[in-house]
């Protein structure tokens, strides 16, 4: 068959399953037909009342078998149990002893590092040492075999001492390490900062002023430990407890192709900074102690610690270390090692392990112990390696096996007899069910021949094709083709679930009508529905029945699509079917072989397909043959000849008619109720704007329910109403522009199971108050949109559809950042409001005109910031209080919601070069570029920092791609919005609000836009791996649209220019006509009737032309 329209169509039949398999109830149309290995003739199948072969004592036999096997298993288990238990107890004791020893060695190894840090401080605490003395101390420590990343001494230097300290260091590095670009004291000057900068003035600093080795650690020279939040906490604990302290975990990842930065292993590793305050400077006097202001530190690599502690380990095991110092938070993985002993080797093989959560660790033998490491609590987990601790149970297992096998031998012969009888009954049941289904699918004579047909192979591979084929001629039939117009473009904007929901709903409605009208459904191919009347049962009124059926379907589809528009979005109700009917003979039969199917052949089928393809949406076109049959039946009023003749592919010029069933016979008991439904619903269908508001409200409500479900599952705290109101007012009182709130990363919560949260959300009711406020808010935002051709509420709705499509296809893995319910809700909200109050001219023009909006926002992303402020100020009104309290429950979530909204709205400004550059750099940093891996994190970035930055980049990518999604969809959708944008820019030019005439460079400008923005953006969607196959689809569409624009763009541009010129001319003529009508009045020509008639005629002629 060529595509979906050909000279034959298929209706799939049922599998006759293997006798040993259950035959499941399945869809009667979509099941494939294959021959059973059984040869069942029609006479046998005609009488299916034969009784099943009785199985004497079947239940009794099965009970006996169970008892025999159970007694044999119980006896063997008792025999094995004693020996296994004893062997396991012995191995358990040995393992616990070894695990405890491993924990103690880790504790001792850590103390070695503490002693080393104390040694450094002891040498340096009076500051009467030189850098050469510090290096000698470092060499003394490493000579003992202690391995670490770096040794440091960190004096407290006041602001007044800073110039001298920097000058001394600069001179030293210039003399001894000329490759070092010394920049003085550095640090992180602001919260959430990720880049090192010269340290701003502070009362005091704790710089890494002395460090060895220098090579490989240049980035840490004179880094102020008091500028990083996590390090500041460690410094505070250091002087508060007067004992060693540890920082949070650091990521130490080697660069590709280089030697590992931590130890000699090849994988990623983590480390911590061990800080030591030394001891009191003087003896206690009167109960006081004088402590030094400085401290020493060692950058400790956890793999080095593991290697030192397990190098002489006597057992083979897996050793993990996790930090459990923070109550209420998950344990943080620090490191893991596999220690294995091989024959002939005195030292174990040590391999470092990948990161594993503490909760995920499990094994048959596992021991956990806590170790106090400075101010931290480490959990050491030791797991037995599979095969290391196996109790010797061979003898007892053999004995148990002998006993059990004896019981099986006793039961085997009983089982075979019962199986034979059961198998026969199953075959008979399968044959009965198959006969019923085949009879319902095909004409009786075809079903009989199919059952008589004896296939040599169930798949038909060895079918005997020499026997008579299964086929028949149906001389009087009417075939209908119905194809959905606009479906391809519509489906390109929806996710697969929405597409199939539409098709299932429409086709199920057609099936109900077909059953009532006694019409045979042949097949559905994509968005094409095919049916036939006069088959399988002859019907002399087949043309009338099919005409009524087509009309019923046309009416029903209007009702169904309108109902679905609130659920599936705009333009759903605009979908319609083309119907084509033709009457004549068809040949139906079964093509035997692999996966045999019932098929229709003949010119009637092909002609019906051509009649449909040349029709119009919402109308039923019929051939002259069908029209004649309808006239002969006395229903000539139903038929209206088509004025123009139709050129049908492969047929030539044909005369067709339109079917107009304005009235159905009152005596027709099968008259479809959809006509009454359409009339009843007609008053309920509102204008497009109201429909869009309803759809947006419902979409936001579904995402908001998931937010509420997450709040409940996470047991989020609820702030007092007064506290939340004060926090909201604080945001409103800010004088800074929203653009200043943009940061490199947004905090995201850890979502354990988004699918479970979404399932729980289905049972949540938001309440009438929240739903009313949500709808009023959407309506108010819709009212802020101006009537401009492109940046209007329709386009915002198009962006919403594509945000939802991306979210529907996105992976819910926590690293992808699209599993946060609040972020998903905010994405949809941002898509709705991102162009609110857009003036229809770019930001650059607003800046040039010194528009009030541009002045307020200092010429930076003025339209976007204005939309954001309008949205936020409206949401903060008292009338939306319940809605706000549903979106967030506390100040932290309110601030995060604000951050999400700022990022997702302002990211739609693609002209702001500064913001675009920052976003590109961040994307390359966390995702890499084509062919290049992401940049490795710095030693001061935590894993949470990296994940938050990654999630922020993905969040912005969704709204960026959706804002220009028309370029990544069907060519028809791209043309539609490209035309709107052209008209908007041309309007701005004609009003003197643009620097360039879009008519001159529209063709080349679009090509450049594709090459330098759309394709790179689509490539990021494709290679982010977060959107699965959809990413590749979007890139393919963008690439196809660019190539088609390169071929057709010049012609399209010329058509746009001509259409614009005609529109301008018509507008001018309309304006002149209105002026003329104003001049014309009866009073003016009271005494001159001929002039009055002439003036009136001129006005009338102008209106006719328009």
Topology diagram in text:
Blueprint: E1 8-11, H1 42-46, H2 58-124, H3 131-143, E2 150-154, E3 157-158, H4 162-176, E4 186-187, E5 197-198, E6 204-205, E7 210-212, H5 229-241, E8 245-246, E9 250-252, E10 269-276, E11 295-301, H6 302-310, E12 317-323, E13 332-340, E14 349-352, E15 366-373, E16 376-384, H7 394-441, H8 444-452, E17 470-485, H9 487-491, H10 496-517, E18 520-525, E19 528-533, H11 542-568, E20 576-591, E21 597-601, H12 603-613, E22 620-623, H13 624-632, E23 639-641, E24 646-648, E25 652-654, E26 656-659, H14 674-682, H15 688-714, H16 721-732, H17 754-761, H18 768-784, H19 793-809, H20 821-833, H21 843-848, H22 852-856, H23 862-875, H24 881-887, H25 891-906, H26 913-927, H27 943-963, H28 971-990, H29 998-1023, H30 1029-1079, H31 1089-1105
Parallel strand pairs: 20-22
Antiparallel strand pairs: 1-21, 2-7, 2-11, 3-6, 4-5, 8-10, 9-10, 10-11, 12-13, 12-16, 13-14, 15-16, 17-19, 17-20, 18-19, 20-21, 22-26, 23-26, 24-25
Domain Guanylate cyclase: 478-612
Domain CHASE: 202-277
GO molecular function: 3',5'-cyclic-nucleotide phosphodiesterase activity; adenylate cyclase activity; guanylate cyclase activity; nucleotide binding; peptide receptor activity
């Amino acid at each position: 068959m060529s595509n979906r329209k050909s000279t034959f169509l298929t209706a799939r039949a049922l599998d006759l399953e293997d006798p040993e398999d259950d035959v499941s109830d399945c869809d009667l149309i979509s099941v494939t037909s294959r021959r059973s290995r059984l040869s069942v003739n029609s006479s046998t199948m005609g009488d299916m009342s034969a009784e099943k072969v009785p199985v004497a004592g079947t239940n009794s036999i099965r009970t006996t078998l169970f008892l025999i096997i159970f007694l044999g298993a119980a006896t063997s288990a008792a025999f094995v149990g004693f020996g296994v238990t004893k062997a396991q107890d012995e191995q358990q004791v040995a393992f616990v002893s070894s695990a405890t020893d491993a924990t103690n060695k880790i504790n001792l190894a850590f103390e070695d590092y503490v002693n080393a840090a104390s040694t450094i401080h002891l040498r340096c605490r009076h500051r009467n040492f030189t850098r050469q003395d510090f290096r000698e101390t470092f060499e003394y420590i490493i000579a003992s075999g202690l391995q670490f990343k770096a040794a440091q001494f960190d004096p407290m230097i006041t602001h007044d001492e800073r110039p001298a300290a920097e000058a001394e260091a600069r001179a030293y590095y210039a003399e001894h390490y000329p490759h070092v670009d010394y920049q003085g004291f550095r640090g992180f000057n602001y919260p959430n900062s990720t880049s090192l900068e010269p340290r701003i003035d502070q009362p005091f600093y704790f710089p890494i002023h002395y460090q060895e080795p220098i090579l490989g650690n240049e980035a840490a020279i004179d880094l102020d430990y008091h500028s990083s939040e996590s390090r500041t906490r460690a410094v505070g604990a250091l002087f508060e407890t007067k004992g060693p302290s540890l920082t949070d975990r650091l990521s130490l990842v080697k660069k590709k192709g280089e030697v590992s930065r931590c130890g000699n292993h090849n994988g990623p590793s983590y480390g911590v900074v061990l800080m030591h305050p030394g001891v009191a400077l003087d003896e206690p006097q009167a109960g006081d102690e004088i402590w030094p202001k400085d401290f020493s530190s060692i950058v400790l690599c956890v793999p080095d610690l593991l290697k030192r502690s397990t190098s002489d380990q006597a057992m083979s095991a897996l050793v993990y270390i996790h930090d459990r110092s923070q109550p209420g938070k998950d344990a943080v993985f620090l490191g893991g090692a596999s220690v294995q002993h091989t024959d002939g080797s005195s030292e174990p093989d040590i391999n470092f392990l990948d990161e594993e959560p503490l909760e995920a660790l499990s094994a048959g033998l596992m021991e956990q112990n806590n170790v106090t490491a400075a101010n931290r609590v480490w959990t050491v987990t030791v797991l037995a390696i599979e095969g290391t601790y196996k109790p010797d149970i061979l003898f007892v297992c053999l004995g148990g096996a002998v006993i059990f096998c004896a019981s099986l031998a006793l039961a085997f012969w009983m089982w075979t007899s019962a199986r034979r009888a059961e198998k026969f009954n199953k075959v008979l049941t399968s044959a009965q069910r198959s006969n019923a289904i085949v009879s319902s699918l095909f004409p009786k004579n075809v079903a009989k021949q199919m059952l008589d047909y004896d296939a040599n192979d169930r798949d038909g591979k060895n079918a005997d094709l020499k026997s008579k084929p299964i086929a028949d001629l149906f001389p009087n039939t009417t075939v209908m083709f119905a194809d959905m117009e606009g479906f391809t473009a519509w489906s390109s904007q929806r996710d697969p679930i929405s597409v199939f929901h539409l098709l299932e709903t429409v086709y199920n409605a057609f099936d109900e009508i077909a059953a009532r009208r006694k019409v045979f459904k042949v097949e559905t191919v994509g968005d094409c529905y095919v049916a036939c009347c006069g088959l399988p049962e002859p019907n002399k009124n087949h043309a009338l029945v099919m005409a009524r059926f087509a009309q019923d379907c046309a009416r029903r589809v209007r009702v169904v699509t309108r109902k679905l528009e609130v659920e599936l979005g705009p333009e759903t109700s605009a979908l319609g079917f083309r119907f084509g009917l033709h009457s004549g003979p068809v040949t139906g039969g079964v093509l035997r072989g692999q996966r045999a199917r019932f098929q229709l052949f003949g010119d009637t089928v092909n002609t019906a397909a051509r009649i449909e393809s040349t029709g119009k949406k919402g109308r039923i076109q019929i051939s002259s043959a069908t029209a004649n049959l309808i006239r002969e039946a006395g229903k000539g009023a139903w038929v209206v000849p088509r004025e123009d003749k139709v050129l049908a592919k492969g047929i030539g010029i044909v005369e067709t008619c339109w079917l107009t069933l304005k009235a159905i016979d009152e005596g027709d008991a099968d008259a479809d109720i959809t006509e009454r439904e359409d009339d009843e619903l007609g008053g309920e269908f509102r204008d497009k704007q109201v429909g869009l508001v309803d759809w947006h409200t419902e979409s936001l409500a579904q995402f908001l329910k998931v937010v509420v479900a997450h709040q409940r599952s996470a047991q989020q705290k609820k702030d007092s109403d007064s506290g939340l109101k004060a926090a909201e007012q604080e945001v409103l009182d800010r004088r800074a522009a929203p653009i200043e709130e943009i940061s490199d990363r947004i905090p995201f919560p850890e979502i354990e199971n988004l699918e479970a949260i979404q399932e729980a959300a289905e049972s949540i009711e938001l309440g009438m108050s929240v739903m009313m406020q949500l709808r009023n808010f959407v309506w108010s935002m819709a009212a802020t949109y101006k009537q401009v051709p492109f940046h209007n509420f329709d386009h915002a709705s198009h962006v919403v559809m594509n945000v939802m499509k991306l979210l529907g296809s996105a992976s819910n893995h926590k690293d992808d950042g699209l599993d946060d319910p609040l972020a998903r809700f905010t994405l949809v909200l941002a898509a709705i409001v991102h162009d609110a109050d857009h003036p229809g001219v770019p930001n650059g023009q607003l800046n040039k005109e010194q528009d009030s909006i541009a002045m307020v926002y200092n010429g930076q992303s003025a339209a976007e910031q204005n939309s954001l402020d309008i949205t936020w100020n409206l949401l903060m009104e008292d009338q939306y209080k319940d809605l706000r309290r549903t979106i967030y429950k506390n100040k932290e979530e309110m601030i995060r919601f604000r951050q999400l909204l700022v990022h997702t709205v302002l990211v739609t400004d693609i002209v702001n070069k500064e913001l675009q550059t920052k976003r590109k750099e961040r994307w390359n940093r966390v995702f890499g570029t084509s062919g290049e891996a992401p940049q490795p994190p710095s030693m001061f970035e935590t894993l949470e920092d990296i994940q938050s930055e990654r999630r922020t980049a993905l969040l912005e990518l969704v709204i960026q791609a959706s804002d220009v999604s028309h370029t990544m969809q069907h060519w028809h959708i791209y043309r539609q919005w490209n035309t709107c944008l052209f008209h908007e820019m041309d309007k701005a030019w004609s009003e003197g609000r643009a620097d360039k005439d879009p008519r001159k460079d529209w063709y080349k400008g679009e090509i450049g836009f594709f090459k330098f923005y759309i394709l790179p953006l689509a490539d990021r969607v494709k290679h982010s791996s977060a959107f699965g196959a959809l990413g590749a689809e979007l890139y393919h569409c963008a690439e196809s649209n660019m190539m088609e624009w390169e071929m057709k763009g010049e012609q399209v541009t010329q058509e746009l220019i001509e259409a614009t010129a005609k529109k301008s001319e018509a507008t001018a003529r309309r304006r002149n006509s209105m002026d003329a009508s104003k001049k014309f009045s009866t009073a003016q020509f009271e005494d001159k009737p001929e002039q009055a008639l002439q003036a009136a005629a001129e006005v009338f002629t102008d209106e006719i032309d328009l």
